[in-house]
Amino acid sequence: MVKNKIAMLDVSELLRPEPAFASKPIGRYRDYDIDHEDPIKERVRITYTEMHTNQTVDYVKKKMAEWLSFDKFEATIMEALESLNDLVDESDPDVNIPNIVHAFQTAERIRAIHPHHDWFHLVGLIHDLGKVMAFKGEPQWSVVGDTFPVGCAWANSIVYKDTTFKKNPDTYDPRYNTTLGIYSKNCGLDNILMSWGHDEYLYRVLVHNNTTIPKEGLNMIRFHSFYPWHSGGDYDFLCSEDDLEMKKWVLEFNKFDLYTKGGDMPDIKELMPYYQTLIDKYIPGLIKW
Ligand SMILES: O[C@H]1[C@H](O)[C@@H](O)[C@H](O)[C@@H](O)[C@H]1O
Ligand SMILES: [Fe+2]
Ligand SMILES: [Fe+2]
């Protein structure tokens, strides 16, 4: 069933040509070089330093217990989206404007390339909505940025890996600092503890509220920030065969998530009615967050 739906997507997209819509040269995205004189680079570096210092097995378990009771507030998807007007993501070297613009840029480009998959347009629009946690007391380092598994050794492709984990107690914990750590080989991504952030939270919110977004769309949301895996070439040993199959679709999503950053400003007001119809179709009404 799931496979059929995936097969309907345009596979030529999977060749990952340089997306024609990228607004700057591809190599200029995701620049995490350290430059203490550059205020945006410093903002990004500090956010990751706090994240990599504090995201531990115990921390993730605590956050899951706290957020996955879905008793924090109620809001429609559109209300949550509008709140992103007030959020500038401090982990992102490519976006220095409110996240709602990024939501519409991602969604509109997906819509242009995959016109027939309306659920995919919606995934583009809402994929970062888990960032609402930042308005409910979570520091940005616990909400935004790339994700990575806790409970096993930090992989080399994690950004700033060599400098930012030095004060994290799990770095020195023999239960957690081997390649496999607490996991078994190919145990499946569903069975690992990921650093706490907006991906897992939104995925769980959608499932809890009985969304009808197809599985491949839910996985795009759940793993879109797992760059060390989908783009860094690490952690395949934790994956099941299904996970490896799914990676192609996460990468397909990533193209739009990343390379639309800095592109044309969407006319949000004009686009709202179309996206409201998608919300009504796949995740209507008041949502428990
Ligand atoms: O800084 C960005 C941003 O926080 C995105 O929402 C997240 O998905 C990316 O992984 C990250 O690099
Ligand atoms: Fe994101
Ligand atoms: Fe995003």
Automatic annotation (TrEMBL):
Q: Which cofactor does it need?
A: Fe cation
**In the record, what terms sit under GO molecular function?**
inositol oxygenase activity; iron ion binding
Would you indicate the residue range of the signal peptide?
Answer: none
Q: How many cofactor units bind, and how?
A: Binds 2 iron ions per subunit.
Annotated keywords? Cytoplasm, Iron, Metal-binding, Oxidoreductase
The UniProt similarity line reads: Belongs to the myo-inositol oxygenase family.
Protein name listed in UniProt: Inositol oxygenase
Report the source organism: Macrosiphum euphorbiae (potato aphid)
